[in-house]
Request: fold
Amino acid sequence: MRTLVSLEPRLDYVGIQLRPHFIRERFGLKGDAAVVFRGACRVEGTALVDLEDREAGAFIASNDMLHLMLERFEPDLPRMVMLQRLLADLVASRVRASVPEKAAVVRRDGDDVFVGDGKLTVSIATVSPVSGLIHLGVNVDDRDTPVTTAALDPLGIPVASFAQGLVDDLVHELDGIADAVSKVRPAHGGGDAG
Reply:
C-alpha cells in the first residue's frame, strides 16, 4: 500500500473526497493507498454517506482535523468496515501510548474513539463500483464542534508525529495480515490426511 502524510497546504474535507481515485487525482498515489492530510471538516446533507446521520439531519464539523483517506481496490464492504475498526483501534492505541495518564479513559466503541466523554474521531467506510473507501477524521481542535469532543492539541499530542505513526501502524498491520495469509496451507475436511 502506498502512503503519504501531507499536512501542508491544508485541505478541508467536505465529503466529496470520499470517491474512487481521489487519492490518485489529488496526491498522485496509484493503486491501494492511504493519505493523511489536515484541514477543517464540514459534511452535511447529501454528502453524508451514513444514512442514519443523514436521516437525522446531523452534520459533522471541526475547525481542524487530521483526515486519513484510504482506498483499496477490492469493493468489499464488510472488509472495509473491519479495516475501519482496525484503524480506530490503531488510533486508540496511539493515543494511549502518547498520553499514558489518559490511557484508562481512551476507548474504542465500534468505529469511534473516545477520550472520556469526548469523541476523538469520525469515520465512515463505503464502497464504489471499483474500490473500498474509508475516511477517518481525528480532531486536532475541540472548539466549535456539534458534539462533545476530544482532540490532539488539548491532549498535548504532536500532530505530525501522530499522523506519521498512524500510517506506519497501518502499514505494519496490513503487512502482518499479508504475511499471515501467505503462511497457511488449506484446511482439509475430515481427519488427518497422514
